[in-house]
């Protein structure tokens, strides 16, 4: 279970923490390209640039992994759920899709959270945040589409395992793809991806009113 | 040591080396043959277990929508309509459509599922929840990524939705096991919604199917006929009807 009693009335505005999750790592390299490109390595490099862009916007950044480790899905969610007033961004590189594009995903609908005891079930922690995740995702996707033509106009919906147990506004950003012949093609996307996430977070900030009771629902 | 003993010792060693040189290749061939036989028997056993349900020509031919990848819009699905003889039994029907989906379209580039993936078993519970058990290849051979994994699952659920109204939800297993994700991204913990409309009353079964039109769970995995072949250019499924495109 996540959180504490629902229904706290007093609220404070704005979040200040962005949890960045470079996906995979350790024994799990993620998607692999023919040229030896590994998703787990590239996302770590992307995160460095995203972190810098977010810090320039005044955000505090927490990472789910620093090096070549592979925390479990739950461990990564726990890192995010332990923060008060945070948003969560998990970064991926796909194996397919139009190279040079980027997609934002928010989690599919989840069964409603039973609030009789005021606790959010861990395996549906994302449920109360889906609306906020959608708003955040659409903002980031909008900025990405301005930079990377051929990307969708709005955030997509998918049952992304990592998002389901995350009790914050949470999105997955997936960049296409490891199939590029030259890794530099992906590296060139990093500043644009970093800028889109940082600008999206800055514009989203006033929309997410963080309850002042730790763990309370939005 | 006398020269005579030396002679016998060296002679014995030479004979031993010659014998080993002759025997080792034979031994290696035998080991290889034994390994091959074991592999063949494993493959045979797997084939016997997973032989898909045959398309029975006696079944009524119905327009079947199969969802494969679009060749014009990246990362989307389009229905391709083909006429197939399909059973009225929802479990057999599900196996028939899923095996045809696994066999793939004419253009291999438009596949949504790995060519070596197999449907091992399919069950339908009374509440409309179906359980599809796929071989490990579905998880290990699929390109890793949210977009590719979602396309694969959507092609399965939308094909079932279009052809088997009795299936309301779908739970996917890999080699009989519940798994956390398909290939590191898509969540397989929960069942996917397939059909939100209540199932239509079942059509009276064709005589040829009378022995199989009974409560569908659990379905037998044994079958008697070969797997449907990939749809070839002689019978291009995409040409039989205009694919409907959805945004």
Write the layout of secondary structure elements.
The complex is a heterodimer of chains A (218) and B (247).
Chain A: E1 11-13, E2 17-22, H1 39-56, E3 60-63, H2 73-81, E4 86-93, E5 102-107, H3 130-147, E6 156-158, H4 161-164, E7 170-175, H5 183-187, H6 190-204, E8 209-211
Parallel strand pairs in A: 2-3, 2-4, 4-7, 5-6
Antiparallel strand pairs in A: 1-8, 5-7
Chain B: H1 3-50, E1 61-69, E2 77-85, H2 90-103, E3 119-124, E4 129-134, H3 137-140, H4 146-163, E5 169-174, E6 192-193, H5 237-240
Parallel strand pairs in B: 4-5
Antiparallel strand pairs in B: 1-2, 3-4, 5-6
Helix pairs in contact in B: 2-4
What order do the SSEs of chain A take from the amino end to the carboxyl end, as H and E? EEHEHEEHEHEHHE
Sheet/helix structural class of chain B: alpha+beta
Integer-rounded radius of gyration of chain B: 26 Å
> Beta-sheet strand percentage of chain B?
15-25%
The average pLDDT of chain B is 78
SSE ordering of chain B: HEEHEEHHEEH
The total count of helices of chain A amounts to 6
- Residue share in helices of chain B? 25-40%
Q: What does the main sheet of chain B amount to?
A: 4 strands, mixed
Based on CA inertia axes, which overall geometry of chain B fits? elongated
Q: Give the strand tally of chain A.
A: 8
Total count of domains of chain A: 1
Structural class of chain A: alpha/beta
Q: Architecture of chain A, according to CATH?
A: 3-Layer(aba) Sandwich
Q: What is the CATH fold-level name of chain A?
A: Aminopeptidase
Determine the strand fraction of chain A and express it as a percent band: 15-25%
Shape of chain A: globular
In order across it, which strands form the biggest sheet of chain A? 3-2-4-7-5-6
